[in-house]
Amino acid sequence: MDTETVGPLAGYAGFAAALREAGVACDARRVQAYLAAVAEVDIAAPTQLYWAGRLTLCSDPDDLPLYEEAFARWFEVEPAPRGRTANQAERRARIAPLIASSGGESDGGESSDSLRVAASDHEILRHRDLAELTTAEREHLRELLATLHPVLPQRKSSRRAPAHHGRLDPSRTLRAMLADGGEPVRLIRSRGGTRARRVVLLIDVSGSMSPYADALLRFAHVLTRANPAGVEVFTLGTRMTRVSRQLRQRDPELAMLAAGTAVPDFAGGTRLGETLRVFLDRWGQRGFARRAVVTVFSDGWERGDPSLLGDQLARLRRLAHAVFWVNPHAGREGYAPVQSGIVAALPHIDRLLAGHSLATLERLLGEIADA
After folding, report:
1. Residue 74: is it exposed, middle or buried by C-beta count within 10 angstroms (0-12/13-18/19+)?
2. Is the pLDDT of residue 87 over 50?
3. Do strands 199-204 and 240-242 pair parallel, antiparallel, or not at all (unpaired)?
4. Residue 282: is its pLDDT beyond 80?
5. pTM for the whole thing?
6. What are the backbone angles phi and psi of residue 191, rounded to the nearest 5°?
7. Is 39 helix (H, G, I), strand (E, B) or coil?
8. Within 10 Å of residue 84's Cβ, how many Cβ atoms?
9. What is the pLDDT of residues 120-177, one digit of tens each?
10. Counting beta carbons within 10 angstroms of the beta carbon of residue 357, is it exposed (0 to 12), middle (13 to 18) or buried (19 or more)?
11. C-beta neighbour count of 325 within 10 angstroms
């Protein structure tokens, strides 16, 4: 890959996209595994990078010649010969130029520089404001969002699980004794278990938040797919819409299409207080918000009564385990929480967080996991 022609999107996810265009069926899960593997290898060593992709992106012998050709073209290493009749020795020979180029400083210098440029572009994109991305950058960001590894918060469960250490379990010990003919041969111990805590995402899709809505819904899709039964997603605008069922679809594009069809007030006005009251009356009070980690994504531009928003957030805080407010503008230099909605919300939330970039959304995942 020529460093002079490297675009801002030339990264590892871009290589996976190029590989798909070449005919290799590497889905989002394989791309996720590939990026995880790349994070563990030395990206300046083409051989390591080659095997990281070959072992994660290829699933069929027919993929190998396509992969080698795409790898050589993308990372500017010596092209490999094609052909399915090649035997094992020939396949080793295909890898040989990659090994040789990594061994010599002069031969590997250009490709190593290219890989570093790709990694640098990836880091730049992680910190770009989601509202300022170009169409191509948004496409790249969608693939990066699919590689996130959400870890949902845990809470203690009343059910106890067998364990090597812990409190003696009389019931299980008695059953074991009966199975052993009445002899107390085994002492069964148990300890308290855990279960995933419910996560609720409330996403403002009004006009002022529309530049962020697509990325935030895709972020919600990633969390929903991590635990379809434990994550609930609603949109806020002039009305409240539940989109959890739509976001449980495996395919991100189909999920976004279904969610977009279900939301009637996209890019409209904002009545946060009224919509939050609808949420609490219809779903929150019944259990969705009880002891859950609730995250509100909004810039706080409230068209309705701010005091009503404050009252509803106070209700929500009494029900929930934790309430986060994610404002895309909070990460900008000079930001001050002076919007009427934010002023009303601050006394009733646990944290005000930024959410304008992929990096801040990654930090949000950490906050949710630790809640």
Report:
1. buried
2. no
3. unpaired
4. yes
5. 0.66
6. -145, 160
7. coil
8. 8
9. 677 788 889 998 888 888 888 888 888 888 999 998 887 777 888 888 888 888 888 8
10. buried
11. 25
